[in-house]
Design brief:
Layout lengths: L22 H10 L4 E7 L5 H11 L2 E11 L17 E7 L2 H16 L7 E3 H6 L4 E4 L6 H7 L3 H15 L3 E5 L5 H17 L3 E3 L11 H12 L21 H8 L5 H14 L25 H26 L5 H21 L2 H16 L15 H5 L29 E5 L3 H12 L4 E9 L2 H12 L3 H8 L13 H7 L1 H8 L3 H10 L3 E13 L10 E3 L5 E6 H6 L3 E8 H17 L13 H8 L12 H10 L4 H10 L2 H6 L1 H9 L9
Helix pairs in contact: 1-2, 5-6, 5-7, 6-7, 8-16, 11-12, 11-13, 13-15, 16-17, 16-20, 18-19, 24-25
Length: 678
C-alpha cells in the first residue's frame, strides 16, 4: 500500500446536514491525491456504507467502513440528561477491521437505535465489550470521553479512560490526535502523547474531514446553519472556525502539526491501520426469504419449495380454466394445451433460478389479503407477464390474452432478483405488513429507509435563509428553476442553462447564493421510511445490515432500497393505493343500493361509452390518466380500444415526449403521417 496519508475520520452527506462530503466527489479527490484507502465515519449511522464501499471499489481505492458512535459511560437504557444526573454522551471513532468487525459494527449501530436512542442513538460500555471483535477504535475527537478529561487537564482520568478502552480492544485501540490550531486540541494532543508514553499505546492522526476542498469551508458553515435554523451572522451559532476540515494530503497533515514530535508516527499509523482493515463484502449472494406454511413450521428445502410451487400453480391454473370455460365461448383443447405448456416452462425456469420460495411468499400474503377482504390490485409491472403469477392469484392479468412475455419479468440469460410490486387498499396495507411480520418474525422483516436530498429549489431557499435573505427574495429566485417534468427534477446546473434570468442573477447579485447552492445541492437532508418497500430476510436482519427504528417503533433498514438489494436482500413493494379504496367503496355502495355484485375482472375492456368519456377528457379519478398532461394526450390520441390505453401510458414518459415519438404515434394513428416499418 502507498504510504500517502489515509483519512480514518471522515463525514459524508449521511452525517445529515453536517457532512458536506458527497461520496463520489470525496472519493475522486482522495484518489487524485494518491491516497490508497479512506474511511467513512458518519455520526451514529451506516447509511452510506454500501454506496461508499461500491464507489470506492469502482474507483480503485480501499474502502474502510466505520462510524463515529455516540457512547454513554452509563447505561444505554438510561433516559436522563447531564442536567438530570445522566452520564452524558460522547463520540468515539470505530472502524471495521474484518468481516466480523463489520457485522459487529452493524449490531452496535442497530442496538444504539433500538435500545439506546435518547436524542441520539447511543451505545454503552456493555455493548462495546460484547461486540468488540474485529474493530479498531480511536479515542475520538474533542467531543470524546478522553477529550473531556484532557481539556480539563485531568491526566490521571485520561489514563484511566484509555486503560479501560485498551482493556476491551487491546492493540486495536489508538489515541486520536488532530492538527487543528485550537487550544483545546493542543491540550488533547498533549494528553494523548503523555498517556501513550505512560501506557505504551499508539497514536494515530486524523483530521475529522467534513468537506473535500479547502474552499468548501464556508459552504459547510452554511450547511450547519441550515441544520440548526441559524443565520451565518449569528454569534451563538455552531461553527468550525479555527479548524481546517478538508481532505488533506501527507504534507498538509505534517505541516499543520508543525514541529510536534509524534506527528510523523501518528500520520504513519493511519496508513498502518488502513493496511490492517480488510472488509470484503460478498455482493453476489442472495438472501431469499424462506417460505413457511405457518410461523411455527420448519423451513422447507429447495426441492420441496419447487414441488409446492408447481403444485399450487397447476391447481391455480385448473381453477382459472374452469372460469374460462364458463365465461369464454371460444375456449378449446388447443388453448388449454397452450396454457399448460407455458405454465410448465415457467415452473421449470423459476425452479432453475431458485425463486420458487419467492413466489410462494408473495402468493401467500396476497391470497391472505384477498381472503381478509383487503382489496388488492390486479398486477403492476413486468410480473403481469407470468402465467405462474396469474395461476397463483398474484396477478389477475392473463399474460396469454394480452400477449405479455415472461422473459420481461425473469430472464434466465440475465439472472436478477424478481421484483413484484403489489397494490393494496390504503386502509389495509398495514394489516398485510403486520401479517408478514407475525408469520416470518419481527427480526426478519423491516421497512426500508429512504433519503430526501437538497434539490435545486430547496437549496436556494435554505442557503438564502442562512445568508439572511428575505423569504420573498429567495422564493422569487427558487421559482426560476423550471418545474419538474414527468416527476424528474431539474438540477440547478440544468436550470442555469435553461433560464436566462436565473443565469443573470447568478452572474450578478446572486453569485454567492448560487455558488453555495450548487455546492450543497444533492446533500442528504433527512431520512424517512419508504412508502412501499419492505424487506424479508432468511435470518435476523441485524446479522446482515444495520437497522434503526422509526418514530412509530417500526424496524427500518439503515440502507436505502438500492443498497438493500445490492447486498442481496429481497425487497417487496407493498403499495398503499387510494384508487383501490375508492373502487372498493364504489362496489360496496352498488351492492347496498342496487343489490348487484360487480366483478371488476369480468368488465369488458372495449366498452365504447368508456372510451367516449376518456376522449372527452373526463379522466378525473382514473388511475394514471388524470394528470393534465396525460389527459391532453388522451384527448389528442382518442383511444378506442384497450391497446390505445397501453400506448398512452408507454408514450407519456420523458424519452418519447422529448424525442417527438409521442407526436408521431398520434399522427400515424389518425392517418395523418405514413407508418414506416423496420
Amino acid at each position: 500500500m502507498s504510504k500517502s496519508f489515509v483519512h480514518l475520520h471522515l463525514h459524508t452527506q449521511y452525517s445529515l446536514l453536517d457532512g458536506a462530503n458527497k461520496i463520489p466527489e470525496v472519493l475522486e479527490q482522495a484518489h487524485a491525491l494518491g491516497q490508497p484507502a479512506i474511511a467513512m465515519t458518519d455520526h451514529g449511522n451506516l447509511h452510506g456504507a454500501i454506496e461508499f464501499y461500491t464507489e470506492a471499489k469502482r474507483i480503485g481505492i480501499k474502502p474502510i467502513i466505520g462510524c463515529e458512535l455516540y457512547v454513554t459511560p452509563g447505561s444505554r437504557f438510561e433516559r436522563k440528561t447531564r442536567q438530570q444526573g445522566g452520564a452524558g454522551t460522547y463520540h468515539i471513532t470505530v472502524l471495521a477491521r474484518s468481516m466480523q468487525g463489520y457485522r459487529n459494527l452493524c449490531k452496535l449501530v442497530s442496538l444504539a437505535y433500538k435500545e439506546g436512542f435518547y436524542f441520539k442513538p447511543r451505545v454503552d460500555h456493555e455493548l462495546l465489550r460484547a461486540f468488540s471483535d474485529g474493530l479498531v477504535v480511536l479515542s475520538g475527537c474533542m467531543n470524546s470521553e478522553f477529550a473531556e478529561a484532557a481539556i480539563s487537564q485531568r491526566i490521571e482520568e485520561c489514563r484511566a479512560r484509555a486503560e479501560f478502552y485498551a482493556g476491551i480492544f487491546g492493540e486495536n485501540y489508538y489515541l486520536e490526535v488532530q492538527p487543528h490550531e485550537l487550544e483545546d486540541q493542543r491540550l488533547l494532543n498533549s494528553a494523548c502523547q503523555e498517556t501513550a508514553r505512560a501506557l505504551g499505546l499508539p497514536l494515530v492522526a486524523t483530521t475529522d474531514c467534513y468537506y473535500p476542498n479547502k474552499d468548501d469551508h464556508f459552504a459547510q458553515e452554511v450547511l450547519m446553519c441550515i441544520s440548526t435554523g441559524k443565520l451565518i451572522t449569528d454569534k451563538d451559532r455552531i461553527r468550525h472556525e479555527g479548524v481546517d476540515l478538508h481532505l488533506k494530503d501527507t504534507a498538509e497533515m505534517l505541516s499543520q502539526f508543525g514541529d510536534w514530535s509524534p506527528a510523523q508516527e501518528a500520520v504513519a499509523n493511519a496508513v498502518h491501520i488502513a493496511e490492517m482493515c480488510d472488509v470484503e463484502l460478498d455482493l453476489s449472494r442472495h438472501y431469499m426469504p424462506r417460505f413457511n406454511e405457518s410461523s411455527s413450521s420448519e423451513e422447507i428445502g429447495d426441492q420441496q419449495l419447487n414441488e409446492l410451487m408447481a403444485e399450487r400453480a397447476r391447481a391455480g391454473l385448473a381453477r382459472r380454466v374452469e372460469t374460462f370455460k364458463q365465461f369464454s365461448s371460444d375456449w378449446s383443447p388447443t388453448k388449454q394445451v397452450e396454457y399448460e405448456e407455458r405454465l410448465e416452462e415457467e415452473i421449470r425456469l423459476i425452479g432453475q433460478m431458485g425463486f420458487a420460495g419467492y413466489f410462494l411468499v408473495v402468493a401467500d400474503f396476497i391470497v391472505w389479503a384477498k381472503e381478509q377482504g383487503i382489496p388488492v390490485g390486479p398486477g403492476r409491472g413486468s410480473v403481469a407477464g407470468s402465467l405462474v403469477a396469474y395461476a397463483m392469484r398474484i396477478t389477475e392479468i392473463d399474460p396469454i390474452v394480452h400477449k405479455l412475455l415472461f422473459e420481461r419479468f425473469l430472464n434466465p440469460e440475465r439472472v436478477s432478483l424478481p421484483d413484484i410490486d403489489v397494490d393494496f387498499c390504503i386502509n389495509g396495507r398495514d394489516r398485510v405488513i403486520k401479517y408478514v411480520v407475525e408469520k416470518y418474525g419481527k427480526e426478519k422483516v423491516a421497512q426500508i429507509a429512504t433519503f430526501g436530498t437538497l434539490k435545486a429549489k430547496a437549496a436556494i431557499k435554505d442557503v438564502g435563509r442562512a445568508l439572511g435573505l428575505s423569504f420573498a427574495e429567495t422564493d422569487r429566485i427558487a421559482q426560476l428553476v423550471p418545474a419538474p417534468r414527468q416527476g424528474f427534477d431539474y438540477s440547478l446546473s440544468e436550470a442555469l442553462k435553461m433560464e436566462p434570468r436565473l443565469a443573470e442573477y447568478a452572474r450578478s447579485e446572486g453569485r454567492q447564493l448560487v455558488e453555495l447552492a450548487l455546492k450543497l445541492e444533492g446533500l442528504t437532508r433527512h431520512s424517512s421510511t419508504h412508502a412501499a418497500g419492505v424487506v424479508i430476510g432468511d435470518r435476523p436482519l441485524i446479522e446482515l445490515l444495520p437497522m434503526m427504528v422509526d418514530k412509530d417503533g417500526n424496524d427500518v433498514t439503515q440502507y436505502s432500497m438500492t443498497f438493500v438489494e445490492k447486498i442481496g436482500l429481497v425487497k417487496f413493494d407493498f403499495l398503499g393505493l387510494k384508487t383501490l379504496t375508492v373502487l372498493h367503496t364504489a362496489l360496496r355502495l352498488i351492492k347496498e343500493s342496487r343489490n348487484v355484485d360487480v366483478d371488476l375482472q369480468l368488465l369488458p375492456l372495449e366498452d365504447p361509452k368508456t372510451y367516449s368519456l376518456l376522449c372527452a377528457g373526463n379522466t378525473t379519478g382514473v388511475f394514471q390518466l388524470e394528470s393534465s398532461g396525460i389527459t391532453e394526450m388522451t384527448m389528442r390520441l382518442k383511444p378506442n380500444g384497450f391497446d390505445d390505453l397501453v400506448a398512452i401510458l408507454a408514450l407519456y414518459r420523458p424519452g418519447p415526449l422529448d424525442s417527438g415519438m409521442a407526436d408521431h404515434y398520434i399522427e400515424r394513428k389518425h392517418g395523418r403521417e405514413p407508418v414506416s416499418y423496420l
